[in-house]
């Protein structure tokens, strides 16, 4: 451990169970000396194991619906009271698509479901930032990280409306990052993670096959949840104090690889490399 977050206070959203990236981030943040509050939607908390994580990390839990400005206001207010000061880092690890859950094809998207996905998975990020700024709840030089996926830039048919939603999430990071950086030096970035065997990720149709495909393309293989947590910790730390408004790929090199020798072999094509 390097005490990268010693003395820092944070809010970590979205820790559902031990497979969650947010869960791993919480464990790593605790190891690196941070104190933080855990939060999730009430329904998600009933489904998950967040109490065990809170006990392990000595953290308090504040239920909050990330689509509710009232809940978010309470979250920041209570967090500062519990932690004894302004917040230094925030993890946005919130994503949900009713269209995917109900296996509705992209071109037949239910628009009420689509709007729900936008509100939960993207607008919640804007709301979290707007409430924090209004309350002046994040310390100068603080860091906010949201988790995303490369379908925001490239087409993955099985990712349906979440691709559009993640594109909006990344745009919010850039747009809000400019204003918050200018006024308070707060950094806002997104981390574009490999396909990861989380409870949410595994619910996407064809996830297993695509996980194997991405793993065969990426020179370093797929980045797992634990390594993603390590990366997030560096973004929360002062070592990355000049990094903001970026979409940062954490995918073992997948995003920069056109085709791999392994995939060529599977297709029966001889590589000349």
From TrEMBL:
Binding site residues for NAD(+): 14, 20-21, 94, 166
EC number, as in UniProt: 1.3.1.9
Family from the record: Belongs to the short-chain dehydrogenases/reductases (SDR) family. FabI subfamily.
One example GO MF annotation: enoyl-[acyl-carrier-protein] reductase (NADH) activity
Organism: Pedobacter steynii
Pathway assigned to this chain's UniProt record: Lipid metabolism; fatty acid biosynthesis
Catalytic center residues: 149 (proton acceptor), 159 (proton acceptor)
Broad enzyme group: oxidoreductase
Keyword annotations of the record: Fatty acid biosynthesis, Fatty acid metabolism, Lipid biosynthesis, Lipid metabolism, NAD, Oxidoreductase
A Pfam family it matches: adh_short_C2
GO-annotated biological processes: fatty acid biosynthetic process
Entry protein name: Enoyl-[acyl-carrier-protein] reductase [NADH]
The reaction(s) this protein catalyses: a 2,3-saturated acyl-[ACP] + NAD(+) = a (2E)-enoyl-[ACP] + NADH + H(+)
């Amino acid at each position: 451990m390097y005490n990268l977050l010693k003395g820092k206070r944070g809010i970590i959203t979205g820790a559902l169970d031990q497979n969650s990236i947010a869960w791993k981030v919480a464990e790593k943040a605790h190891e690196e000396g941070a104190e933080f509050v855990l939060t999730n939607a009430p329904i998600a908390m009933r489904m998950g194991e967040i109490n065990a994580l809170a006990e392990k990390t000595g953290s308090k839990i504040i239920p909050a619906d990330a689509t509710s400005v009232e809940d978010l206001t309470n979250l920041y207010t209570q967090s500062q009271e519990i932690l004894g000061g302004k917040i230094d880092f925030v993890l946005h690890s919130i994503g949900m698509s009713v269209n995917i859950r109900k296996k509705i094809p992209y071109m037949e998207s239910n628009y009420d479901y689509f709007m729900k996905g936008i509100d939960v998975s993207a607008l919640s990020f804007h709301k979290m930032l707007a409430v924090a700024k209004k309350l002046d709840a994040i310390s100068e030089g603080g860091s906010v990280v949201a988790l995303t996926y490369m379908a925001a830039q490239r087409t993955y048919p099985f990712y349906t409306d979440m691709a559009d939603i993640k594109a909006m999430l990344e745009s919010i990071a850039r747009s809000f990052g400019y204003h918050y950086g200018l006024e308070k030096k707060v950094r806002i970035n997104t981390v574009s993670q490999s396909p990861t065997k989380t409870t949410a990720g595994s619910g996407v149709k064809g996830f297993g096959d695509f996980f194997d495909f991405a793993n065969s393309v990426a020179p370093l293989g797929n980045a797992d949840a634990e390594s993603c947590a390590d990366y997030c910790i560096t973004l929360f730390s002062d070592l990355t104090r000049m990094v903001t408004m970026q979409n940062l790929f954490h995918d073992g090199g997948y995003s920069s690889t056109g085709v791999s020798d392994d995939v060529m072999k599977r297709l029966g094509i001889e590589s000349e490399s």
